[in-house]
Amino acid sequence: MPGLSAKFxxxxxxxADPLDIRTRVLISLFVGTAAIYISGTGPLLxxxxxxAYYVARSGSLKIILVTYAFVTLMCLFSLAFIFGTPALVGxxxxxxxxxxxxxxxxxxxxxxxxRMIPSVNVVLAIGMNFQVQRFVGAMKSIHLPxxxxxxxxxxxxxIPEFVATIRQLHxxxxxxxxxxxxxxxxxxPVKSIRLTIIPLAVRTLRIADNLSxxxxxxxxxxxxxxxxxxRLHFRPLDFRVLAAFFVISVAAVIWQQxxxxxxxxxxxxxxxxxxxxPTRKLHLAGETTAVKIIRPGTxxxxxxxxxxxxxxxxxxxxxxxxxxxxxxxxxAWDKLQLRDNPKFANVRFYITWFGIPKAxxxxxxxxxISLRTAVPSNFDFTDLSNPIGSKKKKAHMPSFGAAPPxxxxxxx
Length: 412
Known about the structure:
Elements: H1 2-5, H2 21-37, H3 41-56, H4 61-92, H5 94-104, H6 111-127, H7 132-141, H8 146-175, H9 182-187, H10 189-217, H11 236-260, H12 264-272, E1 291-295, E2 298-299, E3 308-315, E4 318-327, H13 332-335, E5 347-352, E6 367-370
Parallel strand pairs: 4-5, 5-6
Antiparallel strand pairs: 1-3, 2-3, 3-4
Helix pairs in contact: 2-6, 2-11, 3-6, 3-11, 4-5, 6-8, 7-8, 8-10
């Protein structure tokens, strides 16, 4: 019979996963790198939506919803700690509670939670389409070191094993007339621990033993590249998906760069605005010395001189008075040769966005202050369009702290 003598070609077998495992790893690399750099709400939401669509097309919707429920529960516990701990400490010591609140809660405390969404999505997409043999061969084919891909393999292989364990445990307790639910855990806490938590912990240890045996059988650690049942190769779909996520990641980084780096005019507007000017976490650049602004100064009508005149601040217990010069990069002081300009002789505060590198010709009596660590990382400078000195505050813009003491209004 011709069918019995036909030669088998593994490339003709349609794999269960439409994407190559290397494609999914590279997507996680693109998204993870972008998420580390990005801190703005808009760019992070862009990555979250793109990866949510990607993971929805990659596996079971039920598994995705269960994972999201678990992640949401962890986030709720974190939020309860962030908001509950200062309130609890405040019952015994209001001052200590207020200090802890200022330490834990700031204007961008939600950024780590938004960063977690795209990371969970890309890892979940790998975990739902994971095969040890394909993963090991793929990682060795792109010459990734073992110290990089081995933790990824263990973590991603653990996800489906853990899901299968929960299913088996659920069926087992049902046979004993018990339900794995939140209500049952509240009514019968001891029985819930005995029938669910303890078996789950034991099963988790057994999974770890199985993974170590799998690693040995799959020749992980051997120098030679393992043979593959299916040949690894990129298909047109892999290139399209990789190109799409590369473009999305680059667009998110560019978006963050646009909204996150101000111009000198934006810095001047920020400093002149009572509602947006930083009043907390303001320190000398590269130091822990706190700076308390008493009077931010008045706008200088002369565009060739300092930006603000007659400012006053309390630094390390000393009152410092003088003019303010605002720039984006500290080296602008050297390039413009402001030390030799007589109009800048009374400058006592050099305020920049970036804290490094420090200007080489900056005098020791001039206080160098960087605003980057004092302004929330998700602040959108493109929305800072109110006129200088305006008291009108946009509802959607964050406030950087309590308003400073009354001072002379900035003039146009």
